[in-house]
Amino acid sequence: MTYDSANIFARILKGELPCHNVHEDDIALVMMDIFPQSRGHTLIVPKAASRNLLDADPADLSAVMPLVQRVARAVKAATGADGLRLMQFNEAPAGQTVFHLHFHIIPIYEGVALGA
Ligand code: 5GP
User: Motif Histidine triad motif, which positions (predicted)?
Assistant: First the structure.
């Protein structure tokens, strides 16, 4: 599968579309998910152009994973969540809807169903 540079996250990275930006550096943009599955649902979007994990450059993955951990820790501290899910989907049959690599940090609250 090829990378489509007109995908919505590529357009957000280029500043063509708005987002609720909570952090940006040379490696990635961190933003709030527009349709959160729980309070504090956060996305880490690497700046390197790849469709998903399957075609990502391992060097780019090495660069972004420490940030994923930092965001997970920050989201847990900020939300008071009881736990977190780290999610990442590859291709439409697996649930991917935006075809630019990204990681979901989804806070979990005891007794609260996702999407509630
Ligand atoms: P996935 O491709 O991993 O299934 O999920 C894409 C995620 O991006 C979804 O959780 C969806 O709510 C989120 N999303 C889709 N469009 C936008 C957008 O324009 N802005 C933001 N912040 N999130 C988006």
Answer: 100-104
Domains of the chain: 8-108 (3.30.428.10)
The answer to whether 102 is a known catalytic residue is yes
ipTM above 0.85, yes or no: yes
pTM of the model: 0.97
Instruction: Report CA(35)–ligand 1 centroid distance (Å).
Output: 7
List 20, 41, 100, 102, catalytic entry: 102
For residue 77, count CB atoms less than 10 angstroms from its CB and return exposed for 0-12, middle for 13-18, buried for 19 or more: exposed
What spacing in Å lies between the alpha carbon of 62 and ligand 1's midpoint?
23
70-89 tens-digit pLDDT: 999 999 999 999 999 999 99
DSSP state string for 25-88: -SSEEEEE-SS-SSTT-EEEEESS--SSGGG--HHHHHHHHHHHHHHHHHHHHHH--SEEEEE-
